[in-house]
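Appendix C: a fully annotated inverse folding record. The material below is reproduced so that readers can follow the format used throughout the book. The structure is listed first as tokens, followed by the designed sequence.
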């Protein structure tokens, strides 16, 4: 399906049959990325003693129960309800259907930029300096969504155990910078924008949503963070139209499937 879209004062053509899927497929019972050592996402045939939901075992259809922890088992989108007392849900928060977005590649590094709690020697950061270098000439229209691919971009991200390999995270300066740019939907290929073990401070989450303590900020309640994406190296850095697909979960987070569509200026 071909369509014409207008972003800012420019017109583009887009082929909605040719999207780039940057989610990690959820392989129940198989290889998956994992953080915090939570149990793997699993699928099991329903069995009540009389009926079994597995054709291979004599059932007349496949009928499975799935168990997963969206924040830890794979690509997921979360809303401000992740860090607030008020049980804000993603379904109500995500209002944008088609999102102009920019994909950039960034190398995490040791840095003198700040983080709370205090950094240690092995911490690798997404820094403000690196983001500025990539985004200084980006049109504001394409900063509604920002996708950050960390390099090196190894396929092992699709099944990485982050208890065995410490991921990068954002400096305070970097996250504050993204707020000045007006980023509404941030997508990253790490399991968290914060250090995995940070004494519960969640500095980058709170900066992004501009929250004080656990109180909801109504002005940022429609912003989202998506973690554990995988943007294949075949997808070039640049500007896209993004469809951030989520199931109708009334929850602070849900598995998701971000799709990027190429734009051709006309």
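Designed amino acids, in order:
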């Amino acid at each position: 399906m071909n369509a014409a879209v207008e972003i800012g004062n420019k017109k583009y053509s887009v082929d909605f049959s040719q999207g780039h899927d940057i989610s990690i497929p959820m392989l129940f019972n198989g290889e998956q990325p994992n953080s915090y050592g939570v149990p793997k996402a699993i699928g099991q045939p329903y069995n009540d003693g009389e009926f079994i939901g597995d054709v291979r075992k004599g059932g007349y259809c496949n009928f499975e129960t799935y168990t997963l922890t969206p924040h830890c088992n794979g690509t997921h989108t979360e809303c401000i309800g992740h860090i607030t007392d008020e049980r804000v849900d993603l379904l109500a928060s995500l209002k944008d259907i088609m999102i102009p977005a920019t994909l950039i590649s960034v190398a995490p590094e040791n840095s003198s930029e700040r983080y709370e709690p205090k950094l240690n020697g092995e911490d690798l950061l997404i820094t403000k300096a690196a983001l500025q270098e990539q985004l200084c000439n980006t049109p504001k229209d394409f900063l509604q969504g920002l996708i950050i691919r960390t390099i090196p971009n190894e396929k092992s991200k699709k099944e990485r155990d982050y208890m065995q390999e410490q991921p990068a995270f954002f400096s305070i300066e970097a996250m504050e910078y993204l707020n000045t740019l007006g980023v509404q939907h941030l997508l990253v290929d790490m399991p968290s924008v914060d250090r995995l073990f940070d004494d519960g401070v969640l500095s980058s989450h709170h900066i992004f949503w501009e929250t004080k303590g656990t109180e909801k900020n109504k002005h940022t309640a429609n912003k989202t963070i998506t973690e554990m994406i995988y943007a294949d190296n075949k997808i070039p850095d640049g500007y896209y139209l993004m469809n951030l697909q989520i199931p109708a979960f009334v929850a602070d987070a849900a598995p998701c499937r971000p799709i990027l569509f190429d734009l051709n200026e006309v």
